[in-house]
Amino acid sequence: MATLFRDARLIDPEAGEERRGDLLVQDGRIADGPVPEDAEVIDCGGLCLAPGIVDLGVKVGEPGARHKESFRSAGRAAAAGGVTTIVTRADTDPPIDTPETLEFVARRAASESPVRVLPMAALTKRLAGREMTEIGFLSDAGAVAFGDGLRVVEDTRVLSRALTYARSCGALVVSHVQDPGLSRGAVATSGKFASLRGLPAASPMAERMALDRDIALLEMTGARLHVDQITTARSLPALERAKRGGLDITAGVSVHHLTLNEFDVGDYRTFFKLTPPLRAEDDRMAAVEALASGLIDVLCSMHEPQDEESKRLPFEAAASGAVGLQTLLPAALRLVHAGHLDLPALFRALSTNPARRLGLECGRLTTGAPADLVLFDPDRPFVLDRFTLKSKSLNTPFDGARMEGVVTGTWVAGDRVHHA
Which stretches make up the Amidohydrolase domain (predicted)? Predict the structure, then answer.
């Protein structure tokens, strides 16, 4: 069971370099040494070979909304997009707040998805923010992190207790930073554009205020915290101070907030309605620079499937969110083509950093690492037709957009799960 990838542009995010060469896979892991005579040879023809993407914060409809996305459809979309590990959110219906629900999700994912699925569990029971879940039991059942999805735990005492207990279990807490008092009911970022469109808006300070609170609680409890989305320039100095102060904090950002801005909403296009809302161009560029410098650690899709009925509504009434598993890589490559990042830095944010934060072996091209790989042509152009996506829901803001970057193959533990 050996495969030799010949003549590839090897994207090594750990070493921070790309090089032309071969890669040997044996028994599902990256190997070094003589090539077996019976090895399968894949001629990469100079295409890029990189660690498979680890997408942190994916919403799947099971349980409760299988018509929007199932583990099978999400897994197929992930494989087609070069995503080899999806880390699912807990804000389902019912939420993943008991070991029984977690075990159901794990069984469904293992039987249906062609890629790895690692579930998060809820931080509070029923996502209500009033009582923390059994973090220890859920960790034993396989939860890789804890968070209430896009819901904010408003009660500071409850969040403090949850962080303290999570620290005792060595668990990672994932936080969504939006001040509820300011952001409740808002569908846009406050400013001239939102005023001209007559849209309910919230100040970017809603993110900064919530981040300041969570950082203070982190300093008090000594827990491990990952902030799922940092999207405004005003949040970055607080994040930098927390890291410089030695707090165990990392941050992520969605590809939509790095490649789109508030003007893309245009004529009330609901496929561009996201949580948090799209930001000003200055905020977008500040987030891009923070990702390039390493201040923001993780780039993710924040995959949020919504059916047609929930999107074909007036902008204020429409559901928020966009699918992103299959478009994550080509959208992220816009940052490379624009000169903001090189490929090793991009895959450090897409693969290595999220894997490292979750304590996973993948996300590397090191000998002995799992052979979770993506082969892609970074320069091949195409026009996205949303009806070609493999997700059940097709709510992508990139419909009709010209993009570059085509995945030609995806491997999980050395087994090919996608062939373009």
Answer: 340-418
The number of residues in the chain equals: 420
Task: Convert the pLDDT of each residue in 38-95 to its tens digit.
Answer: 999 999 999 999 999 999 999 999 999 999 999 999 999 999 999 999 999 999 999 9
Tokens of 242: 């927390």
Q: Which amino acid is at 161?
A: R
3-state secondary structure 11-47: EECCCCEEEEEEEEEECCEEECCCCCCCCEEEECCCC
Q: What is the pLDDT of residues 104-163, one digit of tens each?
A: 999 999 999 999 999 999 999 999 999 999 999 999 999 999 999 999 999 999 999 999
Q: 1 CB contacts (<8 Å, ≥6 apart)?
A: 26, 27, 28, 414
Cis peptide before 94 (omega within 30 of 0): yes
Q: How many CA atoms lie within 13 A of 91 on its CB side?
A: 20
Burial zone of 161 (CB within 10 Å; 0-12 exposed, 13-18 middle, 19+ buried): middle
The top-level CATH class assigned to 52-364+381-403 is alpha beta
Annotated domain spans of the chain:
52-364+381-403
pTM (predicted TM-score)? 0.97
